[in-house]
Give the backbone structure.
Amino acid sequence: VLRVEHCPADAEIVAEGVEQTVSRVLIEGWAGRTKSLVSGKRQVTELHLAGDFVDLHSVSLRRLDHSIVALTPCRTALFPHEALRAMIDRSPRLARALWASTLRDAAAHRQWLAVLGQLPAIGQIAHLLCEIEARLAALGRVRDGGFELPLTQEDVADCLAITPVHVNRMVQQLRSDGLIEWRRGRMTLLDLDRLRRLAEFDPAYLGLQPPRGIKALVQA
Amino acid sequence: VLRVEHCPADAEIVAEGVEQTVSRVLIEGWAGRTKSLVSGKRQVTELHLAGDFVDLHSVSLRRLDHSIVALTPCRTALFPHEALRAMIDRSPRLARALWASTLRDAAAHRQWLAVLGQLPAIGQIAHLLCEIEARLAALGRVRDGGFELPLTQEDVADCLAITPVHVNRMVQQLRSDGLIEWRRGRMTLLDLDRLRRLAEFDPAYLGLQPPRGIKALVQA
DNA sequence: CGTGAGATTGAGAATTCTCAAAGGTCGTGG
DNA sequence: CCACGACCTTTGAGAATTCTCAATCTCACG
């Protein structure tokens, strides 16, 4: 009884503040967890790829304090809260797995906080690219240091709280430094070592060993 | 069998990467969750007050990816992981309560991300003050809009990723705008409404209705 | 009273932003 | 097959915010 929903690009997969009765796992596409302030500015606080539970919170809190936006067309699988709660109460192991998933989210948020606060714009961009590379690599979606990157420079700007214009200039610098190649939705990291050093990147916070989302659920 | 530990100011309550066999609840004092990058710069990602579980993560992950630093002298109560795990496995309700606690942490991190990214320095400072006020108020530690604030301007700078010098200038502006009074460790918010508007502050993310930390544990 | 941590001030520099315009690329319709 | 429009990306110039570095000041405390 696995329902699947489609969501076009730029639409909300889950809207802020609306009561939910299901949680969603991203099956395909890229999504962003975006928090808006009163002034209308928006901040992407986390990127989601296929396999991620995008709104596990809602099992416990019912409504989200932020929204989940499709950055590309997305497909999501729906899991009714009722069923999830029953499973959680029966299986301490599943409960722990889901808790661990939330812990990883929190760790990722902390890393982003440190990156946003402590790195210059170019390092922030490098860090975001390193994170994406590491996560895609874990999913087997990196070939020869390159991968499909359907994000726009404006999306990157929303993640890092930098101006799109400035993102562009820094991307150009990464290019001219021979660190990346980025054309037509394909990103290639030409010198991962140097890029990681620039980004002060350590993949530990991603907790990539145990698979996330669906798989954790299936295992339990 | 409740062990209590003391920790002097500026010392680590929990060190990054060291395997833990207990989790700690802050009983007294102010602590900060600090993440350091390779370059040595440090970012405080969350403030902790009395009643907060400071390293609940370690129950599941064993070691922290960041450290917990005492900003003032602190006292913490120790809960052995073994006992916690046993309790969690026996009580789905406790498991959910602890999970909810992690969810609140993550929500706070997201809020900080939005604040760091989207607000100018003065708004960030205002936001931090509003958060502290709201949390202390929930603990009954606010009188006439004022409270004890043992943090230095440098601590504030570490939370918001601004320079101490710049914090100072913005604090002065808040003062001259008639928004705050801050002398000798006592902070008074003179115009909470205006301050909250400046900070785009909405206390919802704090999830203050249900008490945190110890109390949640005691209830279950 | 001296001392030291924290707060404050000043001046110049760096990073990042804003606004506005121009270039590219790609799919669609004629 | 070309022209058009939409959406990105890129470029330029000036301005704003924030940083750096260094010195001075304040005040609680021994």
User: Anything to note?
Assistant: The radius of gyration of chain A is 17 Å. The mean pLDDT of chain A is 92. Helices of chain A lie at 57-61, 81-90, 92-118, 121-138, 153-160, 164-176, 192-199, 214-219.
